[in-house]
Amino acid sequence: KQWYQRRVRDSGLVPKYIKRDNYGTVPKYLENRKKQMAEHQKNYEEYIQQRLQKGALNQIAAAERQATLDGLKKNWEELHLQYQGLSVVTDTAPKKARKERMEAEMKQLEKDIDTIEKHKIIYVTDNF
Hints:
Order of helices and strands: HEHHE
Structural class: mainly alpha
Helix content: 55-70%
Number of strands: 2
Distance between the termini: 79 Å
Radius of gyration: 28 Å
Largest sheet: 2 strands, antiparallel
């Protein structure tokens, strides 16, 4: 057998990265990104305040948001109940089309529910 030697420094057994001066510091590009994100958020909030002052945007009240969310969930439950009542075998074109339509409606309702649940504050504009 022939043996060969490995460098101990490159083997990972010697801690060479934690001995560096900049070990554990946040990189500059991350600090710059954080500043940019804060600036963009500030600009967005100023824009929203300007639009609110002009009256172009209206904020939905929490009760109205919850009522909309409850209505969407109720619609999804009714549609899901109808979907469960469909036959397992979709042998005709109308059955297949009805099933696909119901699936698409349920998917859209789920998407709308997720959107409303994700955003606590919702603004509505009169002109679109």
